[in-house]
Records
---
Amino acid sequence: MNYAKIIHDAWNLTTRAPKLKWLVFVPSFVAVIFFVGEIAWQSTLLSEELGFVENHFVYDKLGSGISFIIDHNLLGWVIFLALFIVLFQFFFPAWILSTLILSIRQKFEYPDSHFSIRQKILDGFEYFPRLFELNAIFAPFSIMSICLFTVTMYRYYNGEIFSSIIFPLVAVFFIISLFVNVFISFAQFYVVCEKCPVATSIKKSLGLVFLNFKATMSIILLMLLVNVRIIVNVIVVLGVPFLLVFALSFFAKSAWLTIAVFGVSIVGLILLALAAYLTSIIEVFSTAVWERAFKELRQRQEDEIVKTETKNHTPQTEN
């Protein structure tokens, strides 16, 4: 497998397909906000558990925030925002992914043909139920979910129970999840590119990875080296909260507090938008790499099948 050509072709497509990047931008923006919020929430609760902040600090602040929302008649907006985040975090990603795969496939196979992102969005809805089911089945094996679950268990059961029982079980499940994620690498492409049912897609992905384990792991390692999404998220997670805390604490007793809150909020949104845009670029690039790899490995598999059938049907010459 020519990895250099796959990466070159994927990056070339990413740079000349702005529609695909903006297609992924909104879900990426929501994902970054959700990720930052989850990390901030877990970090604050962990800080309370370890004694860095006072007990009940988090829930006191949460209660104050709820009172502020109710007093200022913002409950409707909060519900709308929550529904918006839930839809784009848990439901729409399957639809966006199917649209992205279909679009990338056409861009590669028919680069000069007319491309309509709206038509691809409509076409992608056909695969939404199966991709949503696929994502739901393997949601417990998400590495991020396992990490957040581990932090939660540590907060509640830190000590002998966590170190002797919970952590070993989580570590074993973490290793199992790594293998699961590797062997279902191509399941979504079987769903979209070959219109297979979910169970068939999982089975075929297992077989394709098993036959091409070295190539699959090489692609995963390449993507880990190229994918800067983790670095971007870490910068956002560390930068935005510290910026907010520092700026607001500096202006806490100042008449400029309202302006400071507004300015920090604008800067925070800009940083989040930048992180979301970079994440959308990586998402398009990553999907393009996997699509090219899937096509090449499937072609190799089909060639092997044809070669085997030809050999079996070739009449043997008698001595």
---
Amino acid sequence: MNTLAIGIISGLVTAFMQSCSYLGGRRFLAREGNAIQLMISSLIICGIGAWILLPFYWMPEKYFTWKMAMWVLLTDGGFLIGQWGFFNAQKHIESSRIASLLGLKVVAVTLLTMTFLGERYSVWQYTAIAGAAAAAMLMNWSKGRLDWKGMNFLLTALFGYASSDLGVQQVVKLIGGDDPIARGMAGFTLTYGAMLIGGLAVMPLFKVKWKMVKGALPQGICWVISMWGLYVCFGLLGAAFGNVIQASRGVISLILGIILSFFAIQGLEQQQSVGVWLRKTAAALLMFGAIVLYALAAKG
């Protein structure tokens, strides 16, 4: 199997497992605890996954530099802010909708790079951003008006995740080497391994019990697998192409949402009309198309 095929499969695994993790997170919030407790429980699970891999990807000469510490801090700090915002948003926004809205991360990345890195974009990229914003409005349209409930938390998540993405790219770049898979997995062990220490330290402060960590296993395990796929995908295909493949999570979550809605599984997805699902489908496809256009314009 060639590099392109492995990268695409890794990206699709990421999209699917992220969609499953959203459902696991919503289940935890309905039955186990609050958003901060879910975030800490998830960090512990992800950190354990990183430490299991650490002996296979231990690169001390790459890890312990001030520049690396700065980018790890941005990656982990942005991720924590993003997770906090996302888990709070899940209280108000169903998983099928939030997965597509996360496509707006491309807008957040654009604003951050323009502000702090001085980058400029083409007309096609701005067109794609406008398309993503239109898709978000269509996704949020309900009963003749826009539904803004939970959007403040989602906005926090978008900028947190966007900051973390910038950090991830730099961490993988600093690790270097000829093996993109090893590069990606080493980056995962470093960033998530550090978060395990923090998660364990604050468990008593936020009254996180090991029973809660057990309850977060569906979300945490899905997220660990999704991150393994993400880092490998980024290492093989780069962040731009990788984000295009990840955008399929909106469509995947939509399909999962329709299935759950059909069976009326309480607490995971609302039962909605055919018209609502058709609108969500159109919005998800528009968001996916906008991100593909953005990536192609960036590549060109």
---
Amino acid sequence: MSAFAIDVHYHLEQTGLFSKITIKKTGLPKCAFNIICSLADGSITQAEVTAVLEQVWNEAPLGYYKGENSYKLTASTEEVQMQFATSTAEASITGRIEVVGFQ
């Protein structure tokens, strides 16, 4: 799980969208990671953030290869959330990415 946290931090950082990325292990099976990302530029739209999160998930090697990978994106007035899960027969990782700082 620590390797996943390092990988997700790296790939989110590479987008250039965030001024701060905080990753917390929760210990909960349905949401093992809570990742909070603060936007570097509040004028970025929720649609742009949603597209970047989808691109990161689909192009970065975050999900388990040949495993089950899923995500769900939702947007509210103040944030974008991405709930994700990736698993194989041997391991499972779940979590949530919260993007805050919209104007």
---
Amino acid sequence: MLAGWIARRGVTPVPSLAEIAWIHLVALGWVSVAALSILLHALPNFIDVERWRCEPLARVALAVAAAAIAALVGAFLFAPHALAGVAAVLALALAVYLLTAWWTLGPALHAPDRIARAVARAFAVLFGVFAIVVVLGVLLAAMLSGSAVPLWVARLPSAHATLALFGWLTLLVYGVSARTLRPITGVRAQRPWMHAVYGSATLLGAPVLALGAALIVPAVEWIGGALLAAGALGYALDVGESLRRATVPHRPPQAFVAAGVVWLLVALVLGAGTLRGAAWQSAFGFVLLMGWIGAMVNAHMLHIGVRLIATIYRGDEDETRPQALLDARASWSAFVCAQAAVLVLALGLLGAGEAFRLAGAILGFLGWIATIVALAGATRTARLGAGV
């Protein structure tokens, strides 16, 4: 709905506060809250520890963070002078969550299992990057609210966005999918070492690109972009092989994964054009957020999320059977609408006009409704089967 409102108002070369509100609504309010919520359940399993340390505190902190994100979006739209205070509350809540996360990772960093140690190190670094993103966000919020900040803070927007999109969200998808693609496809990764390669390339490329953007040094930006492209290509090859050999008959999540990888590669082309001076920045950010990251979130909601529903209500941990709970028509409608929305709205941002942007927003809204219908139907079916 916010995207449709922005489409009617018009998109500017320099992102307006409304556009920045939309970006944070998606990146923080949808993707990050979903990821941090799921990690409360999944992270201990990923690193073979018994439980999340101080989980009740982490849950309260996440609830406060979610409320603060809603307030942040409202402040961008209606009360920019309040941005600094709201951002400070959000940062504090996320700091509490991250401290409990690092405490949970502690035992796994010294575990005898090599894979558990590697996964724990990766998440420790990932949470560290997220902490840096949050700190930069607080500084920028203070600037936008009219507070006195150093002059160099004005150079941070691109660095903040780069670290958020690649250093936090993209690396988060890489890390989580290393453990979740097997249940989604039914196939073990054929080249486990590839994860270290594309993860390392992205972990190095994100800060290099951010530094180049902050210092306005094109050569450094291109080096960072090349590293990110190498990481994305490695990920695409690795995931493409798993999808080609998939045995799980639950296809909509696999389709979302495939679409997400395609949109990631499209975003890289748009990013390269942006570095060359083309006015593709808005389309690049949109495709990266909704085409790449959004598709991967939907894939996990329609498979991993439904597995959790089955486990909660039926004690059924068979990872090949989520499709038994889902309405195929709703799942495929969600897929078709979501991909059409990304395509049409991206074309609108590339110059096709307001009608395309508005149509894309409407298609995205319909796709989200279809996703809700699919998940609500799965929950209802699971509850009825369990006699709840």
